[in-house]
Write a structure and sequence with these properties.
The structure holds 2 protein chains of 2 kinds. Chain A is an alpha+beta fold. Helices cover about 65% and strands about 15% of the residues of chain A. In chain A, a hairpin with a 3-residue loop joins β1 and β2. The longest helix of chain A is centred in the N-terminal third of the chain and has 86 residues, at about 15-100. The radius of gyration of chain A is 48 Å and the shape is rod-shaped. Chain B is α/β, with parallel strands linked by helices. Chain B has 2 domains: about 1-70, no CATH class; about 80-335, 2-Layer Sandwich (Nucleotidyltransferase, domain 5), CATH 3.30.420.40. Helix content of chain B is about 40%, strand content about 25%. Chain B has helices spanning about 1-10, 50-60, 85-90, 115-120, 135-140, 145, 185-205, 230-280, 300-310, 320-335, and strands at about 10-20, 25-30, 35-45, 65-70, 80, 100-105, 105-110, 130, 150-155, 160-165, 170-180, 290-295, 315-320. In chain B, the strands form 3 sheets. Chain B has a 5-stranded mixed sheet with strand order 3-2-1-4-8, sandwiched between helices. Chain B is globular, with a radius of gyration of 27 Å. Classes of the chains: A alpha+beta, B alpha/beta. The interface between A and B is medium-sized, with 12 and 28 residues.
């Protein structure tokens, strides 16, 4: 039964000072827990990142190896290209030289460039023109020169000139060229 | 559940304050579960709260958080009414400015809200848990009689009287009376103040030299003739003997006279209230034959005689330890 005009004050074991102290402790513990959780999360993220980075590093290393092999291949291709290019330019020069060698009065019908020689087919008005104007420069270039003639229908002479370079000389020339490059 | 567990670990302390004429009694009971560990009581010369009382109460409240401070309401505007119906209450008191408690849905006690707030404010330093109406004390104290006997039930405090007419647990009439006695301490204070005033007045006292008509006082010389009267000695002797008798009477029964005055004062106030009970149309008047007095002051011998001789009532007196009774009701409230 109710007898009092007023309600009793709420009874609590924890005094206001203790309540304040406890609330401060709770806040501190809460903040520490948050910091701890944050650090744990950060640590987890860091380890995750490390693993990712290691994986990426391995991938990149593989890529680097692949690229290295590609580079090697490309370098080889470049070397090949340079060699082919050099050969082509040499060939071009040789052909230009060859055509420069051929006088206007002689007409070439076929030319075969060999590894160590040159075979020319053509028409010449006479042997002298051939001997003086074509064979002489050919002999200065090639070590061995053979010529054969047979008459054409219009009275001119068809000729076949087979020229060879001595292989030892050729090797020496190549070695000299290589030394010049380096 | 948790709070109940904690409650079991601490002592329960009931601090009860009963305000008297010029002092307050603080009565303390300390319990461990249901076991009474001790009772303490101290009287303080204040009707509010002073430093000593504060420190005394604080010494107990600091022991346990489960302390309950109860105060017996001494508001001037309070009483009890024979109804619990809200619509009928306005016939007896201003409902807006009062708080009320219903008892068994039959009757209610009320008290002024501003005065209750003032009490709470006065004791705010220690805090109050309960403010009890003297009528609830009265009804609990006489609960064995209230349910069966038509009678006037009176609770006598030092300066206040709570009276109620109960018939078979129904309240018929109730009144709360405050005695108009002048406090001795106030008298002393008044005299002290008067002395102070006199001291102050000395500085601004009238200079006799300034009185111009002093010569006119010479005519008083004629008064000397009065000494020649023959019967003056006889007159003075007779006066002295009367004074001696009165002085002797004063010395022997000064306390009795004080008690006599208080009891007579109480009797007249209660008698007036009983008349009011019979006359007031708001109350159902039944003829009273018995009076039950709960006496917390210990001076009801004369009062009993007055009721018996003047009003021909049967008077039954029970001694009441008011502080302990307030404690009992506080315990009942906390269960």
């Amino acid at each position: 039964m109710k007898y009092s005009y007023i309600k009793p004050r709420k009874k609590t074991v924890i005094s206001s000072e203790l309540q304040l102290l406890l609330s401060f402790f709770t806040i501190t513990i809460f903040m520490l827990s948050l910091t701890y959780l944050f650090l744990v999360f950060k640590d987890y993220r860091f380890s995750q990142n490390t693993q990712d980075m290691i994986a990426k590093k391995i991938e990149l290393e593989n890529d680097v190896a692949t690229m290295q092999s590609q580079i090697t291949f490309i370098e080889k291709e470049v070397l090949l290209y340079e060699r082919v290019n050099t050969k082509n330019s040499v060939l071009k020069d040789s052909i230009e030289n060859l055509f420069d060698l051929v006088p206007d009065r002689i007409t070439l019908t076929q030319a075969s460039l060999l590894k160590n020689g040159l075979i020319l087919y053509g028409v010449t008005p006479n042997k002298d023109v051939y001997n003086f104007m074509l064979q002489a420069p050919l002999r200065s270039i090639f070590s061995e020169t053979y010529s054969s003639f047979y008459p054409a229908q219009n009275g001119w002479l068809r000729f076949v000139s087979t020229n060879y370079i001595d292989e030892d000389e050729l090797k020496e020339t190549v070695v000299e060229e290589g030394e010049d490059e380096y | 559940m948790f709070s109940k567990l904690l409650e079991g670990l601490y002592h329960k302390i009931f601090i009860n304050i009963v305000i008297g004429i010029s002092s307050s009694v603080v009565y303390v009971e300390e319990y461990e579960k249901q076991k009474l560990l001790g009772t303490y009581s101290e009287t303080f010369n204040t009707t509010t709260i002073d430093t000593k009382m504060y420190e005394y109460i604080k010494s107990f409240t600091s022991e346990s958080p489960y302390n309950y401070i109860a105060l017996l309401d001494n508001s001037l505007i309070q009483g009890a009414i024979p109804t619990c119906e809200k619509k009928d209450m306005s016939n007896y008191f201003d409902k807006d400015s009062s708080k009320y408690i219903c008892y068994q849905n039959r009757w209610a006690s009320y008290s002024s809200k501003p005065e209750l707030n003032f009490l709470q404010k006065t004791y705010s330093t220690v805090g109050l848990d309960f403010i009890f109406s003297p009528f609830s004390i009265l009804s609990r104290f006489f609960k064995d009689k209230i349910n069966s006997t038509l009678a006037l039930y009176i609770l006598i405090e030092e300066q206040r009287i709570s009276l109620a007419v109960f018939d078979n647990a129904e309240l018929l009439y109730a009144d709360y009376l405050k005695m108009d006695t002048i406090q001795e301490s106030e008298d002393v204070l008044l005299y002290e103040n008067a002395d102070d005033d006199i001291d102050l007045d000395l500085e601004n006292s009238i200079d006799l030299d300034d009185i111009e008509s002093i010569d006119s006082l010479e005519n008083f010389g004629d008064i000397e003739d009065l000494d020649t009267l023959d019967d003056i000695d006889e007159f003075s002797e007779a006066q002295e003997t009367e004074e001696e008798i009165e002085e002797n009477a004063d010395e022997s029964s000064i306390d009795d006279i004080d008690g006599f005055n208080e009891d007579y004062n109480r009797f007249t106030r209660v008698q007036h209230s009983i008349n009011n009970y019979y006359k007031d149309a708001r109350y159902e008047s039944k003829f009273l034959e018995k009076i039950y007095i709960a006496d917390s002051v210990g001076s009801s011998r004369e009062l009993k005689r007055y009721f018996e001789e003047e009003m021909f009532l049967s008077v039954y007196v029970r001694r009441l330890d008011l502080s302990a009774e307030v404690c009992e009701i506080a315990k009942a409230e906390t269960i």
